[in-house]
Amino acid sequence: MASEEELFASIDALLEEEPQLPPPAERARLREAAGITQARLAEALKLKSTQSIKNWENGRSEPTGARLSAYQRLLKGWAAKYPPHGAPAGPALTPAAPVATPPMPATFTGPAAAPEVETPVPVDAPAGPAVPRRAARPNAHAATSSRRPAAKKAAAPPLDPRFPHGPLAVLDGDGSAYGVGGVVLDCPAATVVELVEWTLRESGLGAPKLHRYGKDSDPLIVLTAAAAVKLGLPEHLEGREQRRSLRLPEDHPVVKQVLKAKWQLTQRGFGPWARIYRKAQGRERQCVQLAILSWDALDERSWPGVADMEPADIARVLGVYAQRVITPRGSTAVSGLELMTALRPPTKPERDQETGNWISGHNPGSLGTEPMDPAPPEATVEHPVVVNSGWTGGFLNEEAYQWVRPVELLTDEECMLPFAVGLDLNTAFLAAAARLVVGLSAPDHFHNVKFNPKIPGSWLVDLSHVELDPRLPSPFTPDGTRPTGPAWYQTHTVAYAQELGYDVHPIEAFLRRETGAYLDPWHDRLKNAYVDTLADLGVTKELSDAEFLAAMERHKDVDPALTAVLAAIKATVKGGVGKLRERPQGKSYKAGERWPALQRPTWRPDIRAAVISKARVNMHRKMLKMAEFTGLYPLAVLSDCVVYPAPSPSPLDFLPYAESGKPIPGAFRLGPTPGLAKLEGVQEMLWAIDLIEKGLNPARHIKGGDAVLDEGE
Question: What's the predicted TM-score (pTM) here?
């Protein structure tokens, strides 16, 4: 029989062995139960890639050293919270000084979220996140919110432990900062400088990066009118210019306070969207975004009704948008452009072959860090590349449709039909961005080049010989008239002429050698945001056409907050595309001068032209298919909406369906997906027809029109 000393020695040997981990399959189960991705776990354990996590979860390798202890501690904590099915839950590990992590609002469509693992506050942290409380004051929109559909409701993905209180907060005059999920933080700040420091040190606000090479989103603080006045700001900005372009003067006391405290403002100054920052120290950003409601930060066209909501409801609207799109950093146009960069960061870390140090290198597929001049026909008339070169060779005219069929081409039968029905394509420009190959390098000039539909660029070609039915608009011009001679076209427009069976012989071209689907992740994220938000409003892919029309008719009455989110998503698409060719602003501008937008790598009029060209071609293709199967021709087309004469107010009576009851491929069909059609009222359309006939641009006269596609914001 073993002696006591021998037994103790054996026990000591066991204690000195490496800690044991659960089986690989259990490790994966626990991580998934906690709602943590392999990438996020790899980042927490300071691993260079997710491959190590994959190896640990399939039994190919095991962690060692400090990572083994940390990984075991994490798994033990998860095991206590998420026992196997049917097993009783044990007590959770509670580290000292836990950070409260409130739940996200249960109003999103998506996978259910598991509780966050509590993380201790570092000992050297200047202060922990502010302790939240629940909103107690009455909500003016509570009755409206209670009518949200109850089906398919799930929580949002878990919050990042670094940002336990979400991406943003709406600060009211009493110091209450309303965050997502009903969280209310107490903000003691009495000045803008104190607000910035509280936001960075105590608020727990922010959002994780959208791409592994990107940057975390800066926290957003939205100020009500009362909060703005309390912080020493004027309640309104007044002046002769458009209010959105106004800024506080440099000698304003608040601006002086900010600069005296060694904070900086961007070149846009202290306006409706003020960004206050210090230069980053290492990898830590020090930047806070402010939005001032009473200064028209939330444009009524993009955020209908939001500025008049209660602070908690504003936080809900912006929180849903931040979760599904991006934390707002300006107008929806600015946010659309920022989203492109966030999903395609210009740089990535790479090792210098000579020194062995990590440096910033070009991220393939991005637009890089330096601005790029367009080819002369792709630029605007005031651009330096045009003015300085004396270019007189013409310009691209890739714009959205503004066409009305001539009265003499209307038949008696069409005139006798009692209704005009508008079919509006859901986010047509977003659908055009899907798998759109664009140029990533500078343009090269070619003469007498053979047309290649796979190369993005601008082509000088004569399409006047293309014969098409005059009852349809020409696919080659925005006003639908037939070309009269050589003109510049984007690749998609020329390719469509070839698709229709006509020979094309370019005279000249500006083409790009390096290409890529730059907008693909932008399209995917916005498409998911749009479809998910429509689903929350009761409009889903599973509905029949009749059910879809009924759901679309009532969806704006379901939930004003989510209706505003939907409008903002659509404005983000159009505004983001428009920003790619932002024109100079201000009366003092002189042609040939460089304006601020030209310093952005995302000032790319050729990409904007590619999106609009593809969208217009897609629209013509559908109209051509419609005429083929139904014999119907449009009365007018404005941007992404086409009007048909009809026997009834329902498109179900004239849309083409096969004998099986399914829609005809390629023609107009109903549905919530981008690129599919929905019923649209024609009152604004009829007004637009009148404006077009008077030679005016309806996009500049109709609220919510597509002027943003023309000039950006």
Answer: 0.78
